[in-house]
Specification:
The chain has one domain. The protein contains 2 helices and 10 strands; from the N terminus they run αββββββββββα.
Length: about 200
């Protein structure tokens, strides 16, 4: 049984500055909810918005959607978060967001603090609603992510997580490629990084 979201402890709030505790709230107009199962008996629900997001669409109709945010605090330094959705889109006549009986996307959620890095990976269902101005609204459901990798003094672990919500995403292939390159480089160089020098 999933409990109601409860106030987050001060330590976790300090580490994840850009996450907000969600008490009985619904998904906001643009943002995500993260359900943390670090205590399986008492899950915690957080909300998060991103400073920027962009997508690139392949010739086969697949999407790479990437979002990024950064917060800075005197107490904890900088905290950067990324959400990467790789949507393998296979159109079917009449398919709607209600047809969520299978997954169609891989998901990466990454938290970078001054002293460490945490990576969560999994799958989910993402439905892109294209708008007239070229932007899309990415509706996110049915995600199941697990802790995949961590280095240094990693941020407070969230355990198994579920992500849902919606992102308003810009049609900006160049920015999407740059964010993906930044994310891949961050993860790729993490094992060789001197994390103690970052603290």
């Amino acid at each position: 049984m999933t409990s109601k979201p409860r106030p987050v402890q001060i330590l976790l709030f300090a580490v994840l500055l850009s996450l907000g505790v969600c008490a009985g709230c619904s998904v906001r107009e643009s943002g995500i909810q993260i359900l943390s199962h670090r205590d399986p008996a008492d899950p915690e629900l957080f909300t998060n918005d991103f400073d920027q997001s962009a997508y690139i669409k392949s010739a086969h109709g697949d999407y790479d959607i990437v979002a990024e945010s950064m917060t800075v605090s005197r107490a904890t330094g900088s905290i950067r978060q990324y959400l990467h959705l790789r949507l393998y889109w296979r159109p079917h006549p009449g398919l709607t967001f209600a047809d969520k009986d299978s997954t169609n996307a891989t998901v990466r959620y990454v938290i970078l603090a001054d002293g460490g890095l945490s990576v969560y990976e999994g799958t989910g269902f993402v439905y892109p609603k294209r708008r007239r101005d070229g932007t899309i609204i990415a509706l996110i459901e049915r995600t199941e992510l697990h802790p995949a990798e961590e280095w240094g003094d990693a941020p407070v672990p969230l355990g198994e997580i579920n992500i849902r919500g919606e992102l308003h995403v810009d049609d900006d292939a160049s920015r999407a490629v740059n964010l993906l390159r930044e994310l891949d480089q961050l993860i790729g160089t993490a094992p060789d990084r001197d994390w103690s020098a970052s603290e």
